[in-house]
């Protein structure tokens, strides 16, 4: 009975859906996290009577036909890359992005990663790094005798050095944009990698046309909406239960058929 396989595919699809929702809820307090959703597609159909086929010598045609579906599958789990809320932290190395763009991160293995997480630190050499110690491109070093570190809205990093009375420019934070942000590959640690689907990064300074500005002493929160996730979770649970009932009903029908034979 096809209903068993169809319902089983529905249960597996909803299991994946629940996993995606659970990950969103688990990352509600993850800086710069972007929520995902599960997208579905129906599977191939068995055609028992084709639409438009001729039914008589006079040329009458079948208006609808008969097609039996094979179930459902998860085809994608795209990310919603909308802006999260901005929260004040009062930490001078925290930087939030307001608008389009991602920070550029130089990985130890030579790869370039991208992130919305602006919770930066200074390492032992004074270099601006992520919380995992990865260098924020293009590599900004803050001297040990620097004070009053500032990051302007256009990404200019300045500090007052030693006994100087005027600040010194230490570097320029840059941002990257992608034509298809949903095509980026998430690798954990709040990092993404470029893929063929995302297109190549377009790099510019904050505040340039089409690019975000940045805000020091702030962080961007996850764009997860708890009420929406709980609503989606309930809907997924109900869909899973209905598919399980179909399997139970199909089993009872098969049992009745076996008892009749």
From TrEMBL:
Q: Per the UniProt entry, what species is this protein from, by scientific name? A: Methylobrevis pamukkalensis
Which parts of the sequence belong to the Flagellar basal body rod protein N-terminal domain? 4-34
Q: What is its main location?
A: other
**By what name is this protein known?**
Flagellar basal-body rod protein FlgG
For this chain's UniProt record, which GO biological process terms are given? bacterial-type flagellum-dependent swarming motility
Which Pfam families does the entry link to?
Flg_bb_rod, Flg_bbr_C, LlgE_F_G_D1
- State the oligomer form and interacting partners: The basal body constitutes a major portion of the flagellar organelle and consists of four rings (L,P,S, and M) mounted on a central rod. The rod consists of about 26 subunits of FlgG in the distal portion, and FlgB, FlgC and FlgF are thought to build up the proximal portion of the rod with about 6 subunits each.
- Annotated compartments: Bacterial flagellum basal body
Query: Has the keyword Membrane been applied to this entry?
Result: no
What gene is this protein translated from? flgG_1
Taking every annotated instance into account, which residue ranges of this chain make up the domain Flagellar hook protein FlgE/F/G-like D1? Answer: 96-159
Q: A cellular component term (GO) from this record?
A: bacterial-type flagellum basal body, distal rod
User: Is Transferase included in the keywords of this UniProt record?
Assistant: no
* InterPro entries given in the database record: Flag_bb_rod_N (IPR001444), Flagellar_basal_body_rod_CS (IPR019776), Flagellar_FlgE/F/G (IPR020013), Flg_bb/hook_C_dom (IPR010930), FlgE/F/G-like (IPR037925), FlgG_G_neg (IPR012834), LlgE_F_G-like_D1 (IPR053967)
Family membership = Belongs to the flagella basal body rod proteins family.
What are the residue boundaries of the Flagellar basal-body/hook protein C-terminal domain, all occurrences included? 216-260
Family matches, as NCBIfam families: FlgEFG_subfam, flgG_G_neg
Q: Which UniProt keywords apply?
A: Bacterial flagellum, Cell projection, Cilium, Flagellum
């Amino acid at each position: 009975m096809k209903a068993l396989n169809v319902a089983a595919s529905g249960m597996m699809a909803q299991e994946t859906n629940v996993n995606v929702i659970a990950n969103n809820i688990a990352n509600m307090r993850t800086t710069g996290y972007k929520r995902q959703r599960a997208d579905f597609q129906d599977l191939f159909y068995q055609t028992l009577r084709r639409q438009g086929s001729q039914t008589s010598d006079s040329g009458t045609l079948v208006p609808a036909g008969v097609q039996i579906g094979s179930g459902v599958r998860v085809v994608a789990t795209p990310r919603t890359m909308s802006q999260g809320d901005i929260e004040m932290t009062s930490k001078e190395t925290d930087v939030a992005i307001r608008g389009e763009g991602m920070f550029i991160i130089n990985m130890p293995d030579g790869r370039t990663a991208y992130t919305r997480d602006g919770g930066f630190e200074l390492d032992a050499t004074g270099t601006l790094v992520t919380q995992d110690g990865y260098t924020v491109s293009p590599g900004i070093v803050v001297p040990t005798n620097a004070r009053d570190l500032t990051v302007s809205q256009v990404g200019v990093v300045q500090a007052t050095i030693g006994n100087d009375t005027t600040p010194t420019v230490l570097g320029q934070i840059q941002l990257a944009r992608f034509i298809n942000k949903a095509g980026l590959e998430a690798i954990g640690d709040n990092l993404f990698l470029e893929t063929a689907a995302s297109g190549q990064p377009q790099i510019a300074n904050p505040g340039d046309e089409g690019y975000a500005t940045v805000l020091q002493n702030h962080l961007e929160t996850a764009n997860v909406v708890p009420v929406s996730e709980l609503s989606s979770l309930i809907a997924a649970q109900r869909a899973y239960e209905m598919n399980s009932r179909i399997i139970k009903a199909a089993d009872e029908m098969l049992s009745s058929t076996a008892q009749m034979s």
